[in-house]
Amino acid sequence: MLIDTHAHLNFSAYKEDFEEVIKRTLENDVWAINVGTQYNTSKKAVEIAEKHEKGVYAAIGLHPIHLDTGLVKMKLDQEEIAFNSREEDFDYEKYKKLTQSEKVVAIGEIGLDYYYKPKTRRRLELFKEKQREVLLKQLNLAKELNLPVIFHCRMAHQDLIEILSENSEIRPQKAVAHGFVGTTEQLQDYLKMGFYIGFNGIIFKTIEGINFEENIKNTPLDKILIETDCPYLTPPQVEGRNEPVYIKYVAEKIAKIDNLSFEEIAKITTENAKNLFKNRAPRRDEGEKESKSLFDF
């Protein structure tokens, strides 16, 4: 089996046929975690997961691109702003309530995104500070609930690494750097923190200054996760909207780079997903209850 550790079947790209896509996913022995990017899509991810006994899970969080800083205008071509409303701040209790569902396996995707940013120095400082504040709030939630974290980071790795280093008391012990696009040095920084590294269809692209093959080779096998980030980043072997079933192409590419069989990578990445997402310790309000198994394998 394969586990797509980062999908968005909760997005409007699938509003007409997400059940058909999920049926196709499960029939092909692929499981998926649908990741929220703000409250609406987080809630939708939970609702979808709860319709399925196993194989479909959810992560909840406020993506930095959906944080309304009031400092920059964004053209959200892919994110479809009409469907994904922007939020002025992170409503801690509102998001926390979503985690009452035992199908929630992580807080995410959360982090930093400097792709769209203000042009003046002062506004840029305020913009970055707002993202930092919201990130820290969500890290506190993850710590309170003993949940792993799915990190999004675009053009901001050094700032994220510094924030995590400066706030070690709330830095998650279990986390993944989703869709990693960074240098080998930044990769090592995340690995030193014990993070998993997520690879998706972007590894088929060419990005100046980024060597995906070296990053894959330099990631220990027990720290590799595979994902689609669907409906985006469709592998070149297929056309149109991406889906969890296409995760096999990412696995095949990594297997080739690491000189392993597809079956070996499938087994390794599935075990890695289990290790990261399957359990959370009891919450403080649950007393002496045993740890909950969120991924029932």
How would you explain this protein's 3D organization?
There is one protein chain. With 297 residues, the chain is of the alpha/beta class. It has a single domain, classed as Metal-dependent hydrolases (TIM Barrel, Alpha-Beta Barrel), CATH 3.20.20. Helix content is 36%, strand content 16%. It has nine helices and ten strands. An eight-stranded parallel β-sheet has the order 1-2-3-4-5-6-7-8. The chain has a two-stranded antiparallel ribbon with strand order 9-10. Strand 6, helix 6 and strand 7 form a beta-alpha-beta unit. Helix 8 crosses helix 9. The longest helix is centred in the middle third of the chain and has 25 residues. The radius of gyration is 18 Å and the shape is globular.
